[in-house]
Design a protein that fits this description.
Nucleotidyltransferase, domain 5; alpha/beta
């Protein structure tokens, strides 16, 4: 069965899985007016079968919790989702999740339910978050019949707004990590990338606090203004 057929079929969940999904649905939304430092955020990174989030397959998720100015090693999650066919050799050379690991991965419904149970309704944070968000939402819709409903924050928008002196061509994740002396112990491993991005989030939260952006709502508004400005720059 190909990915498109898997995406279109109606998911079949057992009673325990349906109950887990219902518990996620009923979780309260975090207060957007709460201080950034008092809430748990979840920094997420994914590996996929390619670079097109609308067509390619979600292979793995790595996530780490951030709260009270720390990235918590004991609040971490990682899963490889079972694939019906492994991704291509060139793709495997990037993320190093081999064919056997993909074929023997976690059942997608079970793995994604584990992720939702771990994440709760915490805000999800990523660098170029649209890529991660679309892949996760497509996968949860296909496997569970419901999109993940968490709010997202995109550090690719927020960090340049907080540190506007970085040259435009040098605004990729690796550029920002290098600027702040953040090491990534295993690039293109989802959990390692999430941990490195979590350290970048902590830098952003400290600078946001210094500039008077102290709540998630304020940081979200900064994100949207940066999104609008980025669109305007592309138009002109």
């Amino acid at each position: 069965m190909n990915w498109l057929a898997w995406f279109r079929r109606k998911p079949s969940l057992d009673a325990a899985q349906a109950a887990t999904l219902e518990r996620y649905r009923l979780l309260p939304e975090p207060d957007p007016a709460a201080a950034l430092r008092t809430q748990r955020a979840l920094v997420v990174d994914v590996e996929a079968s390619g670079l097109d989030p609308l067509r390619d397959r979600l292979i793995s998720i790595g996530a780490i919790g951030v709260r009270a100015g720390l990235a918590h090693h004991d609040d971490a999650f990682e899963v490889v989702l079972r694939q019906e066919a492994p991704s291509g050799e060139a793709n495997i050379l990037v993320h190093r999740i081999g064919a056997s690991a993909q074929l023997e991965g976690r059942d997608p419904a079970a793995g994604l339910l584990d992720f939702l149970a771990f994440a709760g309704k915490a805000p999800l944070v990523a660098f170029h978050a649209a890529f991660d968000r679309i892949l996760i939402e497509r996968a949860t819709t296909a496997a569970l019949g419901m999109k993940a409903r968490n709010r997202w924050l995109d550090l690719a928008l927020v960090v340049p707004a907080l540190f506007p002196d970085q040259p435009e061509p040098k605004r990729g994740l690796d550029d920002w990590l290098q600027r702040f002396g953040i090491e990534n112990y295993d690039r293109h491993n989802a959990l390692a990338d999430a941990f490195a991005t979590a350290q970048l989030l902590l830098v952003a939260i400290a600078e946001a606090d210094r500039q008077g952006f102290v709540t998630w709502a304020q940081l979200s508004r900064l994100q949207e203004s940066q999104r609008w400005l980025s669109g305007a720059r592309r138009v002109f």
